[in-house]
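Q: What does the assembled structure look like for these inputs?
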Amino acid sequence: MLGRTLREVSTALKQGHITPTELCQKCLSLIKKTKFLNAYITVSEEVALKQAEESEKRYKKGHSLGDLDGIPVAVKDNFSTSSIETTCASNMLKGYVPPYNATVVQKLLDKGAVLMGKTNLDEFAMGSGSTNGVFGPVKNPWSYSKQHREKRKQKAHGENEDSNWLITGGSSGGSVAAAAAFTCFAALGSDTGGLTRNPAPHCGVVGFKPSYGLVSHHGLIPLVNSMDVPGILTRCVDDAAIVLGMLAGHDPKDSTTIQDPVKPFTLPTSADVNKLCTGIPKEYLAPELSSEVRSFWSKAANLFESEGAKVIEVSLPHASYSVVCYHALCTSEVASNMARFDGLEYGHRCDINVSTEAMYAATRWEGFNDVVRGRILSGNFFLLKENYENYFIKAQKVRQLIANDFVNVFNSEVDVLLTPTTLSEAVPYLEFIKEDNRTRSAQDDIFTQAVNMAGLPAVSVPVALSNQGLPIGLQFIGRAFCDQLLLTIAKWFEKQVQFPVIQLQELMDDCSSDFEIEKLSSVSLKQ
Amino acid sequence: MSSLLSASSALSEDALRRLKREMWARAVKLGFRSWVGWRRGFTSKADPQRSDRVTAEVIEHLERLALVDFGSQEAVARLEKAIAFADRLRAVDTDGVEPMESVLEDRCLYLRSDNVVEGNCAEELLQNAHRVVEEYFVAPPGNISLPKQDDQEPFSHI
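A:
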């Protein structure tokens, strides 16, 4: 049951094959078993069971709230959750309990979702590995998969199996690992520079970033206000569409959400691919791209062509500057956003009492890690009077150029862009930490970031396993507010590639009854 | 609480010196020891590899603005790399290009009507603060700047 898609489980709940409480308990038990992944910071067991009970009452009366009723979900720990600790994986917010729910969290709960817990991340979502939060790094479930272990056995012997575990990517690593390890059916991440779409392909899940302005980010502890978007992580594209339908729409508390009416939609089972024009940005053919990713990218392009779609090369001339531009804008906005953490109204507070300035300085020294402090200082440098024009304004102008590049491409015949999501498969933690955070982010966000600059929707879909038995994904980028078309194309593509399910044998042994094939036929899937 | 209230803004010279000494003593206790030593060392050495962007003045200025310490030589080096990285933007021709504030710049910002619809939750909000007196957040005395580097007394015990 835990390996099913959201839609399948929802159907099973409606048909009474399983109750919300049973489902919740199974997930809680699996969370305990997969504790070594360090995907969760807080497991909200009592809250989850209570929500599951209420959901069960609704189902018994026949008053279910919809497809999300009773479905276990997880939320990244930088979304405010009322009465549940929200830490952003930082000492600054350890023990902080928000008095309100982020809008997207509230929407999930209003639709009956069961909140399993808050997931791990890089501190304040700054990073591309989910390795530098104060609660420790997140381990990629695929490190323990049968598929990867079989490939590893063929290599060197004698190496300690567990010491070479792989990172998830970041910064929404916890959410991604939670979804990949079957402990929830959907998870929320935050996508500011690709932070949902970076870990998604590393863990074989679908990572979807909606158009900026479609989904409210009220309650998401801000990183870069002009780019922050809640990201949706699920095991298939269809599930992402279901969740998007619940979350999208104007929020009076977030003035950056558009006021256009938004209706939930159902994705068609097929797509008119032969009417499509797919663009391949030539600047994305980076020299650091692994040959395997390149090969899958090329095969995907061929797939579209073979189905009658037009596949053309396009140019995003300023793409190579998106990383630098993001760096300047992100650090500047971070410098501003992190100024709120002074220890007075919430969060960590040091013991110094001689003056406010000394107290603020010491609180921030104790509360933030090197990465956060580094970005704050860089940001403040770029915002100095003498530097403002040359760095901040300049970066904003470059952002305009990058956004215009996309507009030009989409104004021509292109409907969707097809690009890699990451340079390669997930790397071992020991290798990842050899480079510092900024270098890693600059390297790893190269394909995902320009999308945040332009506020476009994008989705990463797992494609296939590498030679090491690890997942590789590809990214589709759509026109602004054409999320439905984007997901339709992604769903069609997902069906063609048939990405394999992760085999976590040892973990599943106790829950083996859930994977009986005969259950499949009894669950009707009318779409 | 009495110590907070008794520190008024009109401090005598003596009192100010005592206060600064206390601050630095506290800072040292917290482990700023190596940081202070490094800062003094920084100004006394002329490092040929250091660029002229991140001078001692800039460091001090940034630390005051950000209320975040560099803490180490590495952090300064990281800032220099970050600046060098951002310098690549100069290569882009942005003549006649308007800066982009928001991707939704072509739309009107939503403004809701000015009606009070929520609030009255002082108790909930105060719960997250460490120091509270009745309905007030308690802060240490203000208008006291962090001591400048020059004002440091020699720390023979470091």
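The radius of gyration of chain A is 22 Å.
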